[in-house]
Amino acid sequence: MEAHTNITKIDRCSGLSEKEFYNTYVKNSLPVVITDRGDWTTLEKFTPVYFKSNYNHLNRTIDGKTYPLSEIIDLCKSSTPENKAPYPNIYNVDRDFPEYPDDIPKMLYGKSNRLHSRLLPNFIAKRTNQQELFFGGKGCSFPTLHIDYLGVHTQLTQIIGEKDFILYPPNQTPYLYPDKIRSTQSPVNIINPDYDRFPLFKNAVAIKTTLQPGETLFIPAGWWHTTYIHNFNLTYAIDHVNSFNWNFFMDETYIAAKKSHPKLAWTIKVYKVIMGKVFNLKESLLN
Ligand SMILES: [Fe+2]
Hints:
Layout: E1 11-13, H1 18-26, E2 32-34, H2 48-55, E3 59-62, E4 65-68, H3 69-77, E5 89-92, H4 93-96, H5 122-125, E6 131-136, E7 145-146, E8 153-160, E9 163-168, E10 185-186, E11 207-211, E12 216-219, E13 224-229, E14 233-240, H6 246-260, H7 265-284
Parallel strand pairs: 1-2
Antiparallel strand pairs: 2-12, 3-4, 5-6, 6-14, 7-10, 8-12, 8-14, 9-11, 9-13
Helix pairs in contact: 6-7
Bound molecules: fe (ii) ion.
C-alpha cells in the first residue's frame, strides 16, 4: 500500500459515484467525510430507549466490571470529562444483534467490499470485526492511537451526537512510536503527550474532523486514528477490504491463520491470487 500525499484537511463530499469514491479517495489513500445519509434516513429508530428496551440482556465487561446495556447508556448520558463513562464499549452487530443486520442501512460504497462477498470464505471474513456499534459519552476518547487490525479500511457512520476524529497519515508513523510487539498501537497519549518519553511526537501533524449524525467517515487502511466525544454518542463502524488493501489484508490473514489453523493457512495464499483477479474484474465494472 502506498502512503498518501500531504493533506491538511479532510474533504466533505456528497453524490460521489462508486468509481469517483474509489479513484479519488481509496486509490490515493485519502480519508473523506461522506455527507449523504444513504439509507440512514431511519436513524431516528436507533434511540437510547430502543436499545434499552430491546437489548438490555447484553452485558459488557470494562476494566473488570460488568454493565448491562441500560447502565452503559445511562453512564454515557451523564458522562463528563471529570467522571467519564466506561469506554470503549463496543457491540459486535453480528454477535449481539443477530436480527439487526437486516435493519442496518446498506453500506455506502459497499459494492467493492470483499468482506461481504459470498465469494469470501467464512473463515477469512470472520477474522475481522466487520460491523460494530460504539456507545460513548462526553469526555470519552478511544484509549489508544491505532491502525485498524488486518489492514482494513473502515467506514464510520455517526448515529447520535458528534464525534471528533483525529487522524495521522501513514507517513507520520516515525513520530508515533509504534509498539514493538503490537505495531498497530501507539503508546502516545495525544491529548496529554509526554514529550520527554516521545520527543519526536512534536513533529507529528494530525488531521481532524468532526462527524455529525448521518455522516460517514472513510478511514483508509494504514491511517492512525483515535476519537474524542463531546456528548452522548452512538457510532456504527464497518470494515472494508477492496483491491487497494486486498494483498495486505490477505497476507495479514495468512500470518494469523498460520498460528490458529496451520493446515488450512496455505489455502489463503491460493485464494489471494485467484480470487484477487476475480474481484478486480468485478470492481473494474463498478460505476
Ligand atoms: Fe479503529
